[in-house]
Design a protein that fits this description.
269 residues, mainly alpha, Glutathione S-transferase Yfyf (Class Pi), Chain A, domain 2, 2 domains, four-stranded mixed β-sheet, 50% helix, binds glutathione, glutathione transferase activity, Glutathione S-transferase, Thioredoxin-like_sf, Glutathione-S-Trfase_C-like
């Protein structure tokens, strides 16, 4: 991993993750980055009494400000960074998962130092998050506000397309990137960009893991097509310092009714 931006700076602000309680969801991409970097943070809704009302006040209000002079937030996740606001005293609040990852990448040393690689990391995270969104649409293809049961027929069609054409296309891209980096960047088949863990790895890993929960049969069948991705990469990230401890801790929340849901009828039959 790269060193945090200011090499002299050994302490970090107490980062606050503002997200829904009880589900991994998009908050998980932020948790994994922080956990892999070994940087402490507060998971406000899960750890603080009345934490979710704080999240709601900041991220789900209809006003012209989120808090501390920051512009409104569209939806969780958001990151609150005490002391990092415009005036250098108040808190900075930013949202959009890839935006938060881009911010944290440099600050906590989980992005490469050279400019080209920084954008390659972001490109991978954005692509993994595209797949995350498509998987969400497998159970909500018509309307976010409708129940799955009210859009089941369309879900069956959408899930079939995601499994048969989209998942292999994304997996092929991640696998080809691993191969490219093995040849040119010292990735050893374990890292997508460069020779150490970045938030591209944690983000792609989380989407792979989520897809294994949502579509276990489909993903099992794909393993032999992408042995590098399911092997050295997937297993390697799981074993990474910080992540190994986190993944076996109770902070790692179980998949349930978030983006990654397991409806057997949507999986390969
Ligand atoms: N593109 C946004 C999507 C954020 C999002 O969809 N958040 C969900 C929870 S994972 C939410 O609460 N959405 C409420 C809404 O969109 O109305 C991101 O990546 O952060």
């Amino acid at each position: 991993m790269a060193q945090p931006s200011s090499k002299k700076q050994r302490t970090h602000p107490q980062y606050e993750l503002l997200y829904h309680p009880g589900i991994p969801g998009r908050g998980e991409f932020i948790r994994l980055a922080l956990e892999a970097a070994g940087v402490p943070y507060t998971d406000t809704a899960n750890e603080q009494k009345d934490g979710y009302s704080t999240v709601q006040k900041i991220c789900m209000n209809t006003g012209t400000e989120s808090a501390d002079g920051n512009p409104p937030v569209f939806s969780p996740p958001a990151l609150r960074v005490p002391g990092a606001g415009k005036d250098g005293k108040s808190a900075l609040i930013i949202s959009q998962t890839p935006n938060i990852l881009f911010y944290l990448g440099e600050k906590i040393g989980i992005a490469p130092e050279d400019e080209a690689s920084k954008y390659h990391v972001q490109q991978l995270a954005l692509t993994a998050l595209d797949l995350n969104n498509e998987v969400h649409d497998s159970h909500h293809p018509i309307a976010v506000m409708l129940y799955y049961e009210d859009q089941k027929e369309e879900s069956l069609k959408k899930a079939k397309d995601i499994r048969e054409s989209r998942i292999p296309k994304f997996l092929s891209y991640f696998s080809r990137t691993l191969q490219h980096n093995e040849k040119t960047g010292g990735g050893q088949g374990k890292y997508l960009v460069g020779d150490s863990l970045t938030y591209a790895d944690t983000t792609v890993w989380q989407v792979l893991d989520g897809c294994m929960f949502a579509f276990p049969k489909e993903m099992q069948a794909r393993k032999s097509e992408f042995p590098d991705l399911f092997g050295a990469f997937y297993e390697g990230v799981k074993e990474h310092k910080g992540l190994k401890e986190y993944l076996s801790s109770e902070r790692r929340l179980a998949y349930s009714m978030g983006v990654f849901r397991h409806y057997p009828e949507l999986d390969r039959q």
